[in-house]
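Morning!

This is the sequence you dropped in the shared folder:
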Amino acid sequence: MPVHTLPELPSDYSALAPVVSPEIIELHHDKHHAAYVKGANDTVEQLAEVRESRADVLLPAP
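The structure's back. Tokens below.
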């Protein structure tokens, strides 16, 4: 099962200052984006569990 990972930023948090503050970049990357990655991994895991438990009625995994 593929595991999604949070990519590293290509630059440091202050790269867009003063237009975007380093705190906003850090918040977005380390909290928001990380939550999306975790949600994707949780969903993939749940789908795998359902496929295993209901293999008789669901279509096979691609």
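Headline: The helical segments are 22-53.

More detail when I'm at my desk.
O.
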